[in-house]
Amino acid sequence: MNSLQLYLDEDSVEKSLIAAFRNADLDIVTVTEVHRESYSDEDQLLWATTQRRAIYSYNQRDFCRLHREFLAAERNHAGIILVQQQRYSVGQQLQGLLRLAATVSAKEMVNQLVFLGAYIERP
Fold first, then answer.
1. Torsion of CA 7, 9, 13, 19, to 10 degrees
2. What tens digit of pLDDT does each residue of 72-110 get?
3. Which domains does the chain have, with CATH numbers?
4. pTM over 0.90
């Protein structure tokens, strides 16, 4: 099983979140690190796909739309992971992402739209 690789978009580049993901040995890169700030959401998704990285974002509206458009046009993407902003703590996001990464391979993420909340345990 090939492991999930992530691309964090501009909405999700909180330092504490990045640190938590890296401390857990998750394979991530951020928009800032690859100098792709201010690109459109579609351009971000296309770049992530060429890098075989699922995009991680709080921007549910735009990425749900892009997911539908890609599928309708029979275009592939490497996966989209969406999180409700300010609903989950860094720890909860990490827990959910580790659970997702343990159950879904990068290959299985292709063309999938995942809401991270489905992988976060409720107290």
1. -10
2. 999 999 999 999 877 899 999 999 999 999 999 999 999
3. 5-119 (3.40.50)
4. yes
